[in-house]
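re: ur msg from earlier - yeah i can do the pyridoxal-5'-phosphate complex, just paste it... oh wait u already did. ok heres what im feeding in:
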Amino acid sequence: MTAAAPAPAAAASPGRLPEAGIARALLEAELAELCARDHGYGRESVFNSISSAPLPIAAAVYRRFLDRNLGDPRIFPGPAEAERRVGEMLADLLGCPPAGGCLTSGGTEANLLAMSLALDDYRARGGDPARAAILAPETVHFSFDKIARLLRMRLLRTPLDGRLRGDVPALVRRAGAETAAIVVSAGASETGAVDDVAAAAAEAERRGIYLHVDAATGGFLLPFAPAALYDGPRVDFAAPGVRSVTVDPHKYGYAPIPAGYLLLRRAEDERQLHVASHYAGTHDHRTLLGTRPGAAALAVYAALRSLGRAGYRSIVADLFSRRAHLLRLLADAGFTLAAAPDLTVVAVRVGGSLRMLAALEAEGLLASVSRRFDFLRIVVQRHTTRPALARLVAAMARHERLRERPA
Ligand SMILES: *Cc1c(COP(=O)(O)O)cnc(C)c1O
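and the outut:
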């Protein structure tokens, strides 16, 4: 034989569907190989993720109810009831009037459904669909880029203020006849900055424009933020101008992925989302997904019920105290911030943020740099322990010194 020996089976043509199913041991080897380079949350190397490991109880519940389809409540009324109760608990948590809503695959789907409602609302107001625009501060989540494309809307970005929060007066000045929706963030994922929801809601209400609050990052943080450490705007999700709110249990709610929730203020918006099934006696759908994980509804239910307010309050207090620890470490190492943080995202000024990012990644430390802003973004989560934060800041300081005094 002149040709090289065939590669071991584990690496051989993994894209082919095998004729005969492979043995369990080989499968385990393939899975181990596939995931060998995953960071996971246990290695203390992840500083760029707003998601973290789910609570063990929520993960166990998810595994137990894997076959439940939330898309067919005739077969599975239980998960549908869990979804409804989760909606009530989330509305109670945020203090929103609980007129309706739905569990989604995450913030993206929840935001998409909200924007589809805003577009319907805009058409009903006589707006020209060809010109429909979403108006939002520059830090609006990039899910809105996808949504604007899918719904054929324009996304108009407005400036930030010195704290990296949306400049609401500037946003209001841009609002006009083509504004189908105003979106503000209660915790932008890039910066953690909390927009002035109250001011935007008042203006939206005055003008009859649909206002959506994206609280995918902050929905589980704001209700529990320790008063002494939170100096961002107070967010009133019940303000009359707020038509819908996105919250993401699979982030700071510690539910397994996938779990988002869209909360709706008006029962008519809830009805507007319904699409009738073809089958008599089968429930309407109101989400983008058809077949969807009932396990997710039950797992969010489990997370909320087992932690309760006290459980979340103590987790969030701990996150804020880790953030304070991180800020001290950064200050001691001579770093300055792009802005004082509102929530658990810390934006640090570094020289050459992309080089710093690459140098950290070469050491196995994952941070992030937004394309728009020249700062290093560090997300504080349950998996970012104090020693892990100390190692990160030490590595940052080392790279900053190397840059300033090249050998
Ligand atoms: C995470 C996030 C989203 C998108 O949610 P997915 O769950 O990733 O689909 C939208 N907005 C904000 C503010 C987020 O933090």
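cool cool. The two ends are 52 Å apart (CA to CA). ping me if u need the other ligands too
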